[in-house]
Input
Amino acid sequence: MATSLGSEAVSIRPNVFLYPLGIWVAMAVIAVVNGGVREIVLIPRVGEYSGHVLSTAILVAAILLVSFAFFSWTPVDYAQAELVLVGILWTVLTVGFEFAVGAVEGTPVSVTLGQYDVLAGQVWIAVPIALLVSPLLFGWYLSS
Output
């Protein structure tokens, strides 16, 4: 598949998305463990809102660390467009997973959407933002 960015065509290689897909699975496991730690350890000690904020910060740090490690280690030389697509893939998979789990648990969509309401003090939006930008940030930075 080729796409045009500016005046030059960029070839997107579908096979280079297999490793990032595996990395996303690892990050999903980390996120689930983080959620368990939030419920069992953090919230009883610091309260609901502080536990949510602290858990989100820990998860964002873990995402950045895993992303940095992956792009430091990978032998694949990702094109900028591929890095953007990895970020989009990670973000779409995460948000989709969140809504799917919510649906299975019977959580109303309005409650899941409410987690993205920054004006209501919600900080969860930092997680999809970290997933979206970390591949481009670290993939580009580490390839320089």
About this structure: Residues 19 and 67 are 12 Å apart (CA to CA). DSSP finds five helices and two strands in the chain. The mean pLDDT is 92. The radius of gyration is 17 Å.
